[in-house]
Amino acid sequence: MNTSSEVTREIEVTREIIERFHNAFETHRPDDLDDLIGEGCVLENTAPAPDGARYDGREACLDFWKGIASSANLVFEAEEIWASEDRGIIRWNLRWGENETDRVRGVNIMRVRGGKIVECLGYVKG
């Protein structure tokens, strides 16, 4: 059984990893993702509807995310970042133009193990 200090530390690590992950997108720094993604990572993307594309393995996830993080046309803003034990949630806004309709709100539900992201399930408001 984990002590409360071990659980507190796990939450801190998870939150730090999730914040660093999101900041890579906000600051368009794809190389900041290199140390955050674990082997065997699984990503279920928000598109295409209804289930989204699935990416299996560290390299597949990293390649996909680096493509998004490097795009200067995409503006990510966090609404909320939350963590508990090995789970993290990022509620976000993504904007790609000046019109009100050029945006979408979404959420990533993530799992962190050993200081690395190993799972991400992405959803958007449709």
TrEMBL record:
Short name of any one Pfam family annotated for the protein: SnoaL_2
InterPro entries according to UniProt: NTF2-like_dom_sf, SnoaL-like
SUPFAM superfamilies reported in the protein's UniProt record: NTF2-like
Domain SnoaL-like: 18-119
Origin superkingdom: Bacteria
Protein name: Nuclear transport factor 2 family protein
Organism listed in the record: Luteimonas salinilitoris
